[in-house]
Amino acid sequence: MGVELGQAYIVLAVAPALVLLYRRNAIEAERVLAAAAFCVVFAGTFWFAQRLL
What we know:
This protein is mainly α. It has helices at 2-24, 26-52.
């Protein structure tokens, strides 16, 4: 349950900043979201590969 709470805190901290960024510059917000998504996918793939080995 601790990991899930940590994830929820991160979302609660980052979401308002993303909303503000989106209101100021939608294109830049999309770039930030794409970069964040890439980082999440990369980290997940890395940890998955580590568990396989």
